[in-house]
Amino acid sequence: MTPARPRPDTTPPAPLQGDGRIDVVVHCGFAVLMVASGVRYVMRHSPADNLWTMALAGAVCVLYAATALLARRANAYRPAARRPGTQPTPWLPWTVALLAAWAVLVVVAPSFAWCSFAIFFLGRSALSGWPAYVAGGVTAAATAVGLFRMSDWTDVAMVLGPLAAAALLTLIYDKIERDAALQRRLLADVSQAQEQLAASERAAGIAAERERVSREIHDTVTQGLASSLLLLEAAQRSWPEASARDDLFKATDLLRRNLADTRSLVHELSVPGLETGPLAEALEHAARQYVEPIAVHVTGDPRPVPPEVRHTLLRITQSAAANIKLHAAARNASITLGYLPDAVTLDVYDDGRGFVPAAVPPPSAAGGYGLRAMRQRVHRLGGELSVESSPGEGTIIAAQLPLPGSSTGSNSETKGSP
Q1: Is there a contact between 383 and 399 (Cβ–Cβ < 8 Å)?
Q2: Which string of b and e fits 100-132 if b means at least 16 CB within 10 Å?
Q3: Which residues contact 151 (CB under 8 A, 6 or more apart)?
Q4: Beta-ladder partners of 397
Q5: pLDDT tens digit string along 141-166?
Q6: Which bin fits 412, alpha (ψ -120 to 50), beta or left (φ > 0)?
Q7: Which of 207, 232, 251, 346 has minimal Cβ neighbours within 10 Å of its Cβ?
Q8: Rounded Cα distance, 28 and 21, in Å
Q9: What pLDDT score does 215 carry?
Q10: DSSP character string of 61-95
Q11: What is the mean pLDDT of residues 282-287?
């Protein structure tokens, strides 16, 4: 099914109505020309002629003011999408009366012919479509007849001049209307594109936040609960031996930490020790929640790293250590934190049973979010994550994150430093 094309915007742009300064210039010009033409006519004709002509000129001024006022008010509240001809124009009778009175006045008193410009622009701004062209033609024809009469019906230039001027003004006015309509359509397209972009950004922000919360829950709540469950199951099997009490103590301690992490996540607080304190100690503390003992090594010149990098390294360590406890059955594990001139690296190693990275199942209700969450965290900061493992040969999870600067900080972050 072919989608319906939007209807073209046929509402007259009416540039004179859209620009109040042009309206003021046109109306003031009409007033000045009417006064000047009236004075010229009074000085050149007898009082008997002046009375009726000036009365007609006054009627033209009243009709002009009424037409301009009604058209301006109606167009100010006219819906932008209204098509010409779909609703009546209340100022149309006033416009017709103005053109009729003006035609009579300019034929009887050609001295008022200079006011034709203002009458032309008012007719084009008040009307649209073919009525506007008719109004312009009537104005030009009446002016041509008046000037031709003033030349005693001998000067053909008096006829051709107003007609040519009207044609030229019509072409210019039409060009202005088309440009205004095009500009209006372009502005509407830009506005629509901005709204769509804002909606897309909102949707992307919601999706990113969902992913972030998913990673946080996986790396804290889910991993902690899984480890606590293993400890409780081990205590149940060995109860009432002394080892069962140790497992219960560890499970209780891990659940308390898990509760603290959950509260921190709910209130958008930082992980304890993340914002301050040595990074190596924070990584060791995070890993010992799941694997104990575990060795932490630091290479390079330690220096402060941005909070988002510290947070990512800590979460990767937590997730990797939880995987070691749940799946690896490793005897030994270690963490290596390395400082490069423009990056920081993290390697988490264990000598457990290993696995085939390419055969890891996709995330599901049963789990499988750990490696994906690690990659998302690292890629979000422009880093790289690699997993090296094979069955029976252990696992190495290696992450490298870029740092914003290469200068060495004055504060050391060595393991055990204050």
Answers
A1: yes
A2: ebbbbbbbbbbbbbbbbbbbbbbbbbbbbeebb
A3: 158
A4: 348, 387
A5: 888 888 888 888 888 888 888 888 88
A6: beta
A7: 207
A8: 11
A9: 63
A10: HHHHHHHHHHHHHHHHTS-TTPPTTSS--TTHHHH
A11: 87
Structure tokens at 158: 């008096």
3-state secondary structure 195-225: HHHHHHHHHHHHHHHHHHHHHHHHHHHHHHH
Token pair, residue 115, equals 């006011």
3-class DSSP state of 238: helix
Q: Which long-range contacts (CB under 8 A, 24 or more apart) does 228-237 make?
A: 228/254, 228/255, 228/258, 230/325, 230/326
pTM to 2 decimals? 0.42
Residue 262 pLDDT more than 70? Answer: no
pLDDT digits (tens, 9 = 90+) for 331-369: 899 999 999 999 999 999 999 888 888 877 665 554 556
The secondary structure of residue 352, as a DSSP letter, is S
Q: Do residues 248 and 264 lie in contact, with contact meaning Cβ atoms separated by under 8 Å?
A: no
Token pair for residue 46? Answer: 């007898």
Average pLDDT in the chain: 76
* Residue in 335, 325, 320 with CA at minimum distance from that of residue 415: 335
Rounded distance, CA 381 to CA 399, Å? Answer: 11
> What phi and psi, each to the nearest 5 degrees, are found at residue 80?
-65, -30
